[in-house]
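Hi,

Apologies if this is the wrong queue. I'm a grad student, and the batch job for Citrate transport protein from Neovison vison produced an output file that my downstream script rejects. I'm not sure whether the problem is my script or the file. Here is the sequence I used:
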Amino acid sequence: PMETIKVKFIHDQTSPNPKYRGFFHGVREIVREQGLKGTYQGLTATVLKQGSNQAIRFFVMTSLRNWYRGDNPNKPMNPLITGVFGAVAGAASVFGNTPLDVIKTRMQGLEAHKYRNTWDCGLQILRNEGLKAFYKGTIPRLGRVCLDVAIVFVIYDEVVKLLNKVWKTD
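Support response: The file is valid. Your script probably expects a header line. Output copied below for reference.
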């Protein structure tokens, strides 16, 4: 529900006359007007988006690591290289699942009532706005996600290295 509430709040705050006066007031209004269902709009699109997002990121990151290490699986990874590979994995996930992100956002927004379901939302976007509409917001998302994924993979690798020194598993 938090993803749906976040999107509704963003749309409300950018509208000419915002109606939500704060978090609790906003949630109360959403539930009053749309029922509990209003906080779960776009659930299918969110699951598809998040699932494909992680699948793409980990596939690309693992592929790049394997390529870099070649025949030596124990070859150390410099944090800078890990960061670059993480940024590439983040970019791949953005290009790979921005269409699902657009659908998810539409399904969760204040105009969600226009759509019967995730499939209908995608078809309406395609019919009314064309393929290009599925990549709205790609550039800003690319900047944020590449940096985010790079940082996450670097931190993960460094924490694993530290834990391996503390708890030897060999």
